[in-house]
Each structure stands twice: as C-alpha cells, then as structure tokens.
Amino acid sequence: MPLTLASAPEADGAPAGEILIPGVKGRARRPVAKPPRHLADLPMAGRRAAVAELGQPAFRASQLSRHFFGRYTDQADEMSDLPRDARDPLAQALLPRLLTAERELACDGGTTRKTLWRTLDGALVESVLMRYPDRVTMCVSSQAGCGMACPFCATGQAGLTRNLSTGEIVAQVVAGARLLADGEVPGVTSRGDRGGSSPQANTARVSNVVFMGMGEPLANYANVLGAVRRLTDPVPDGMGISQRSVTVSTVGLVPAIARLAAERLSVTLAVSLHAPDDELRDTLVPVNRRWKVSEVLDAAWSYAAATGRRISIEYALIKDVNDQAWRADRLGSLLAGKLVHVNLIPLNPTPGSQWTASRPADQREFVRRLEAHGVPVTVRDTRGREIDGACGQLAASAR
Ligand code: SAH
Q1: 236 cis-preceded (ω within 30 degrees of 0)
Q2: Residue 253: phi, psi to the nearest 5?
Q3: I need a surface site. Which of 221, 317, 334, 368 has the fewest CB within 10 A?
Q4: What tens digit of pLDDT does each residue of 313-346 get?
Q5: Probe residue for ligand 1, chosen from 146, 212, 356 as the CB with the greatest number of ligand atoms within 8 Å
Q6: Are residues 286 and 296 in contact, defined by beta-carbon separation less than 8 angstroms?
C-alpha cells in the first residue's frame, strides 16, 4: 500500500510521510531520574490528597480528572470551571506534559498513525493508533526498550532503558483520544473507503488498547496494572474503556501471569509463543530458558479459568524457522480444546536480519493444520508496515 501524507507536506530532508513537529527538535532536555508525578499515576484518593496539599478543595481532583480523562486536555486555560488563579498551580502540579511527540507518521489514508514520543529524560517510545470501521485500537509501550532480547524484535536488540510510569503509559492513549476527538483521524466507512466529510462524523473514541508496543508489560507490573485501571475505570477516575477491550501481551512471565489472574480483571491475555517446542523457543524467546512452553501454557489456562477470557496466542511466522507443518501440528495439539485463539503475525523483518516472513503457501498450510485441530486462527493484518509499524522499529531508526 502506498504511503500517503496525513498532513502538511514534509520539510526538507524529512522522509516521506514524516510530519515534523515545529519547536520540538533541538529543545533543551533536562535529564530527570524519574518522571514527575501525574494525576494518572494516582487513584482518586491520592489525587484528592495531592490537591488538598496545594490548599485546594478535594473536589478539584475530580474536576482536573474530568479534563484529562474525559476531555483529553492538560491545558490550564481550557479549564474554565476552575478558579482562574488555581488553574496553573493545579495543572503544573498534577498534569505535567510527560511525553513530547518527536515524530508522527501516517499511512492507510491517515487511519494508521504512529507517534514516536520522547520522555522528559530523553528516552524514545512509540505508540500506534489504528482506526477501523468498527473500532479504534491503540498499541502502547510499557517500557523504554525491553530486556527480553527476542532476536526477531527490533526493541529487543537495544535492551531496556527503563520502565514507563503509569502516567507515561496512559498519556499515549489520551493523546490518541485527543486526535480522534479533534476529528484529526479520518473515519473508515467500509474497507478502504474514507468517510466522514464533516468533522462531527469524523470523531471517535479509543475502544481498544493493546500492550504490544515497546517493552514487556508484565516486567513493569505495578505501573502497567495502574495503567489498566486508569484506562478502564469510568470517568473521572479513568477513561472508561472496557476491560474486555484491553489486551496485555507477554513473553510468558509465569508468576506475573498468575498475579494478573488473581486481580480478577476482564482483560485479555496474549502470550507471545512463537514456537511450540522448547528447543526453538529457547532461542526465539530467551526467557523460555526460565519458564518452559508447558509452564507458560499452564499459566495461560489458569488465567482463562480465572477470568473466562479467551487466551490469544501470538505466533510470528518466520520463513523456515518456525513455520514447518510439523510445528503447526505440534502447536495444534497443545492448544486443541482450550479457550484460545491463535494470531499469526507475518514476520516484519528488522533491519539487518536474515529472517523473513513465511512463504504464502507455508502460511496457508500452517493455518489449515491449526484449523484441522479445531483451533481458531487468524492472520494479523499488517497495518503500518510501511511506517515501521512493528515493535520498536521507528525508535531504532531514530537513534
Ligand atoms: N513484550 C510483549 C509485548 C510487545 S511485542 C510480548 O512479547 O508479547 C508485541 C508482539 O509483537 C509480540 O508477540 C512480539 O513477539 C511481536 N513481534 C515483535 N517483533 C516482531 C516482528 N519483527 N515481526 C512480527 N512480530 C513481532
């Protein structure tokens, strides 16, 4: 699919599709050890306490929260329900701007938007917004970099920089919600058609969030759980997205999967399996040397039993590495009869890698064999590929 520009023509030297954000590059960056406190880091009781510390009545916490989670703004001058002299101190104390857009890329007629964010201490993270006719999905990062070292993943190559705070995770979704509310993402009426000529018809809400950007969400458990709560609690506590529409994707950190099951949330768990046998998975997902395929799947089935949610198995199809018919059969027999769905992802090759996506015939045979075991399977669409949509590739190219 050709890359199309979503907005203004690029400045000199910018790659096609890149939108330069004026005033961002070259700005002095103050190194900070930890991101400053943001209201999204705190449950409502903590926000009320923070507001009271500023000498304001506690109900201002709910007013500020409505601005951020319901109207997607952190701008003091837009908060006309707050007394004029209280706006700036409250916004400065509880709504610091945690992320600055460094680059924005668009494709699919503007319905796929990828943002490269810079944190206050200079780390780069990515989020992607994908608008479909019936939903809007945001793919968010949970860490700057990743420590899991999966050799086919761009983020895995660079190692872990640090965990993102709850506020930094939530800010990615709020930014997408703001773009949608402002009518800046064209609607899609049916496959490939752009619709919504009036700005009114063009607005939409973020309906789904997937933790499939940079990082291993379950290695940043507390902050990710805080983000899940902020995303799914109703306004003003949070954004009011359905728990069922949130997916946490993991390499398979078994104790953390058990912990998540005990939270009794209705979020979907995705397990990045990529191989049905330990020998291959030890190399593709190195943490498999600690928790084997059988342990990871047992944890997943316990999660399904505790939550009633279908497990999503992620499997990147890599030509002649993990796409053999016998591996499809092995996977099919591991998953047959379980509450599960397999998501096959054609490998998006990272720069310099010798690996590539499977041949179409091998991919079809893989699907056929899983289906023969009665296992539901889909092949993921590859939206955003031309804007380095997969996992860390934009950040890698910016370094
Ligand atoms: N660390 C988490 C979430 C981030 S990655 C996890 O591993 O689940 C989201 C998904 O994209 C994972 O299934 C990951 O294995 C997959 N992925 C990473 N790099 C990829 C690539 N180059 N091509 C296809 N899928 C990739």
Answers
A1: yes
A2: -85, 95
A3: 368
A4: 999 999 999 999 999 999 999 999 999 999 999 9
A5: 212
A6: no
